[in-house]
Design a protein that fits this description.
single chain, alpha/beta, Outer Surface Protein A, domain 3, 7-stranded mixed β-sheet, 4-stranded mixed β-sheet, 13 strands, 34% helix, 16% strand
Amino acid sequence: MHLSHPLLKPALRRGWHDLRTVQFGAAPAHAVVLGPIDTATGSFIELLDGTRGMPLLREEAHRMGLAEGYADRLVGRLARAGLLDDTTGGGPGAAALRERPAALERLRPDLGSLAVTSREPGGAMARMGARRASRVQVRGAGRVGATLAAVLSGAGVGQVDVVDGGCVDPGDVAPGGMPARAVGERRTEAARKVVRQASPGAARRSRKGPRADSGEPGLSLVVVAPRDGLGAFAPDPAAVEQFVSSGIPHLFAGVLEATGMVGPLVLPGATTCAQCVSLDRVDRDPAWPRLITQWRASRRRPSPSCDLALATTVAGFAAAQALAFLDGTLPSAAEARWELALPESAWRAVVLSPHPECPCDAVNSPDRAREPGESPTLSGEGPPRSAPAEPVRATMAKSR
């Protein structure tokens, strides 16, 4: 592993259990305890502040009386433990971001989070560079969609397009989403302003145009967040067929009758799609086709029941799922639809499986990431199953 200028991740709090044991990180999910550490090693660790290259660090180690090659071994162990960043790492996307100091400062908290969740040095900047090269389309500019679009833009996604019809009404207004002054404006135009104001700065783009091999060229992800939450609860396969046929990943999110929903995240041909969901509902309820036809065709739209706090929660959770996907992680919504029904305060996962009769053929995909039932829970009863209850412990080799 090559590191240019190693840096102990500043996002992880550091504390000493005793004179020979140090803990990096307070939250158990990402904390690491190292020991035993002698005085010379503890002093050397303090030099890993990103200002020194490896040649200088080797010289400093020699002056401290540390064994030949110890600096490289120690840096390697710290890197493998996920404790080091590299102030010059991350590739071309990271280098481009460093040339935009104002945007970089806006994104510092996001980079801190990525540094905690990315074990490899330079991983945070590399992932942020990938975000800034991404294009996401949000379909829907209501309380959920507009807020979600603003969060994605503010978190560093390079291009966020919002598609919706009609004009902003008072019920669309939400903190972080549509402002009150936007009432009466065209929804798409008003959403563009929201996205632009949230952005830390547009990424510099290549002169090469986006791909022209689909109806939605160059899209990394589409988030379907209809103002009428029925489109998220029971997605119409015909409405997203263009994304399925083009292989464009798409995520559903919305609020229906005081129930928030996030998912599924559809990876065409690999995970459960809208048609799979529809076929499964028909299997479980023969009356489903009749019901959904009535609800979709009805001219009498019920009054919105989209609680502001719930809509904001759904927008934030959907944005987290979308960002995880853009960062290269398969989020839990790929095999589940998450639901939060007021007045409860706990999300529950409705596990989804590809339907054997669906033309998407995802049931036979070799790329399916997990078996049904393996999605983690967010029940509020403690940390997710993947999170350790105690910090990870590592043993250090002797310095001499």
